[in-house]
UniProtKB/TrEMBL annotation:
This is Nuclear transport factor 2 family protein. Gene3D superfamilies: 3.10.450.50. It comes from Ferruginibacter yonginensis. It comes from the Bacteria. Residues 19-121 form the SnoaL-like domain. Signal peptide: none annotated. InterPro entries: NTF2-like_dom_sf (IPR032710), SnoaL-like (IPR037401).
């Protein structure tokens, strides 16, 4: 039997509710609640960090939430795709700390729910558009190039590993 919850006049099942709980916590930069929505062996993927698992995912959200500046988030369109898979659109606005530039990142989340928790989470967005906003002209001109994208990803991974060493 499906566990249904009424939210904003719409009936949502328990699986959609965990997605709402995740994004409502994200709006508040509450990494603890966000991470409580995940299974222990969560798999996460996005254009910046590529594939992360378990504690790496939890540390990424802790790091991003702790470092967020002038942050706001909106989400909508939670859609049941069947077999425990859901999609959701979300947009984050924030100031990128390294450059002080404003970023508006439009994303699509793909999530798999197992036993009431998020077991898989992938976010799709344009790294080129992000780099143009966050870095400026070099990002606009080179954000499509493999070497430039690798530099961005390597910096993100390095920052995550440093954060994990300092906080765990």
């Amino acid at each position: 039997m499906l566990n249904l919850i009424k939210l904003n006049g719409l009936l949502m099942n328990g699986e959609q509710n965990i997605i709402q709980q995740f994004f409502n916590a994200f709006k508040k930069l509450d990494a603890t609640t966000m991470n409580a929505c995940y299974t222990n062996n969560i798999a996460f993927n996005d254009p910046m960090f590529d594939l992360l698992r378990g504690d790496e995912v939890r540390a990424m959200w802790q790091m991003l939430c702790a470092n967020a500046s002038n942050f706001s988030l909106e989400y909508d369109s939670i859609k049941d795709e069947g077999d425990g898979y859901y999609t959701c659109n979300w947009t984050a606005q924030y100031t990128f700390s390294k450059t002080g530039r404003r970023v508006i990142n439009k994303c699509k989340a793909y999530m798999k729910i197992e036993n009431g928790l998020i077991a898989e989470h992938s976010d799709a967005w344009s790294l080129h558009k992000w780099s143009e906003q966050a870095i400026g002209l070099p990002g606009k001109l080179l954000g499509w190039a493999g070497f430039f994208r690798r530099r961005i990803k390597n910096n993100a991974r390095k920052n995550l590993l440093h954060f994990m060493q300092q906080n765990h």
